[in-house]
Amino acid sequence: MKLLIQRMEEHARPENQAPMAAYMKDQFPFLGIKSVERRQISTPFIKEWKKTKIIDWDIVHSLWKMPQREYQYIACDYLRAMQKYLRPHDLASFETLITTKSWWDSIDALVKTIGYLTLQYPEVKETMRTWSRESNIWLARTAILHQLGLKAETDIQLLEEVIKTNLGSNEFFINKAIGWALREYAKTDSQWVIHFLLTYREELHPLSWREANKHLKVQ
Predict the structure, then answer these.
(1) Could you give the 3-state DSSP secondary structure of residue 215?
(2) CA-CA distance, 59 to 27, in Å (whole number)?
(3) For the whole prediction, is pTM greater than 0.90?
(4) What does each C-alpha distance from 98 to 103, 105, 123, 140 come to in angstroms?
(5) If we measure between CA atoms, which residue out of 176, 212, 173 comes closest to residue 196?
(6) Is-contact 98 110, C-beta < 8 A?
(7) DSSP of 135-191, one letter per residue?
(8) Are 100 and 61 in contact (CB under 8 A)?
(9) Residue 135: left (phi > 0), alpha (psi -120 to 50), or beta?
(10) Nearest CA to 31 among 63, 79, 58?
(11) Are 132 and 140 in contact (CB under 8 A)?
């Protein structure tokens, strides 16, 4: 870990720090290392960590505690690289990540890894249902988005349920997520999404409708 931090600090880009922080509404400080260079630095470390074939949550939590945002991105990349070693009990650790240093960037970097876990272990879907009802918007957003990219493997009953649970929300990040989840699934089954839009037209927030309907053009 010390060597990774040393490498990251050596590649800090002061000229990028303020713009990158501003893009995230100044929620976190940055080293100023953009994604391509960050992955060039972190990939050899992740490859070495993978050799254990066991997820080292101490590494993840150590990265999560670092002040600069790039370290949380590395933690997300590591978990994605190790996703086949995830087990249902790891959801407790994911919940800690989701509810700590929370912002859309870390949530969106974790959702597909969690989606992979639910695909391998269907019992995890119950946790997604629970999260969809949470007052913590980041847990609810994760529940809405975790099936992104699953295409034909999407559990449409679960997708409908977690979205319906959050209809009527005035929270931007929830309504944006609803629209994104529907727009993504429309690439697989546009008729299902059109039916959903028409069924819940009055309950969908205008933002959710616009996002979901971007390519469908439902009147």
Answers:
(1) coil
(2) 23
(3) yes
(4) 8, 11, 20, 10
(5) 212
(6) yes
(7) SSHHHHHHHHHTTTT-GGG--HHHHHHHHHHTTT---HHHHHHHHHHHHHHHTT-HH
(8) no
(9) alpha
(10) 63
(11) yes
**Contact (CB, 8 A) for 48 and 81:** no
Structure tokens at 206: 């205008």
Give tens-digit pLDDT for 15-44.
Answer: 999 999 999 999 999 999 999 999 999 999
Alpha-carbon distances, residue 77 vs 40, 112, 217 (angstroms)? 12, 11, 35
Q: At 98, which amino acid appears?
A: I
- 86-123: pLDDT as tens digits: 999 999 999 999 999 999 999 999 999 999 999 999 99
Read off the amino acid at residue 117. L
Query: What whole-number distance in Å separates Cα of residue 149 and Cα of residue 61?
Result: 27
8 Å CB contact between 178 and 166: yes
How far apart are the C-alpha atoms of 79 and 77, rounded to whole Å?
A: 5
- Residue type (1 letter), 21: A
Query: What's the Cα-to-Cα distance from 147 to each of 77, 113, 132, 204, rounded to whole Å?
Result: 18, 10, 13, 20
In this structure, what token pair is assigned to residue 177? 């997520």
Token pair of 7, please?
């490498």
Tokens standing for 123? 């019992």
User: What residue type is 78 in one-letter code?
Assistant: Y
Rg (CA), the chain: 18
Nearest residue to 187 via CA among 157, 149, 161? 149
Question: What residue type is 26 in one-letter code?
Answer: D
What DSSP assignment string belongs to 3-31?
Answer: HHHHHHHHT--HHHHHHHHHHTTTSS---
Cα 139 to Cα 130: distance, rounded to the nearest angstrom:
9
